Amino acid sequence: MRAENHNSMEIGIYSLADLYPDPLTKKTISAKQRIEEIIKVAKMADEGGLDVFGVGEHHRLDYAVSSPPVILSAISQITKKIKLTSATTVLSTVDPVRLFEDFATLDLISNGRAEIIAGRGAFLDSFPLFGYDVNDYEDLFEEHIELFLKLNTKELLTWNGRYRPSLKDAEISPRPVQQKIPVWLGVSGTAKSAERAGNLGTGLVLAILGGDPSFYKPLVDRYRESASQAGHSLENLKVAVTGHAYISKTNQQAIEEFYPYHSNYWYHINRHRGNPVPLTRADFERASSKETALFVGSSQQIIEKIMRQYELFGHQRFIAQIDIGGMPFKKVAENIERLATEVVPVLRKETKKNSS
Fold it and tell me: What are the Luciferase-like domain coordinates in residue numbering (predicted)?
């Protein structure tokens, strides 16, 4: 039975669609199979009562998804209520007008469920691919987010910038079902990015992949302070936390089962960055302890970790990445089931209690 959300924390999942080999079988599934499984996962999340489903954007052969709105549009036709977001859109290297049109169309066919998490991405492949100069990294992002937010509010727009042709009385269509497409900015750890989100009045998404979660408290404080100084109502601003998650019957079993996939994921990420150092089992166990931000353990430990962060940040949304490092579909499905039936009901009850 679907558990509805009534003014409590939103819980969701997202996929970056990596195509890394399964570390146990050494087999790599095709991009076609990966996309088919992501669509199945989204349907399971919707049927299980989760609130949000996200898909990432990458432009390399070891990832299956380069166009989130296309995948999310397919998902919109087999789901009913779950919100559909990019996770993230690489905003520096996409035309904001085209981006708005794509997500406004998604909003129409999903009956008002489209959202965008905008960021700058973990890789730089999209810059040469689409003809952008990586030296313009910061300026491109600033200009593109400014333009997108204007497109989101105006049907007719005149605009001048540096990196794309000017707009003169341009008709911005189609218009979404929602008054505005919700926009969040993804932040990994810099105060400047948190301050930018606050100044713009967007949502803030914290990517917390490990370590002590209290490190991120100053970023949330800076975000809210900047938003207040810019005249934005704090009631309308939202904070989300994202992170890797794996749930099993016990904490030790979760460590045993997840270590091969988590280690495999980071090996491939770091190999692309020129530092293919494997994650040792001892390091992983330390990273999975109850005081850290890595969401690995029993359902009870996951609940405790999320609630500890809720006390720190007072955030409105948690989104888990649960399909990394070549993990087979069966294990992903088991994670969704535990998240939906054992974790979500408790979090909704506790966060509703705290917000009332």
Answer: 9-312
Q: Are 139 and 127 in contact (CB under 8 A)?
A: no
User: Taking the chain, what is the end-to-end CA distance rounded to the nearest angstrom?
Assistant: 25
Let me know: does 302 contact 318? Beta carbons within 8 Å.
Answer: no
Q: What is the pTM of this model?
A: 0.95
Instruction: Point out which residues pair with 311 in neighbouring strands.
Output: none
Residue 336 lies in a domain: yes
The pLDDT of 82-99, averaged and rounded, is: 97
Q: Residue 160 is part of a domain; what is its CATH number?
A: 3.20.20.30
Residue 5 counted as domain residue: no
3 part of a folded domain: no
- Residues sharing a CB contact under 8 Å with residue 38, sequence separation 6 or more, in sequence order: 15, 17, 55, 64, 65, 71, 323
Domain count, the chain: 1
Residue range 3-26, pLDDT digits in tens = 344 589 999 999 999 999 999 999
For residue 105, whether the previous peptide bond is cis, meaning omega lies within 30 degrees of 0, is: no
In the prediction, which pLDDT does 354 show?
A: 59
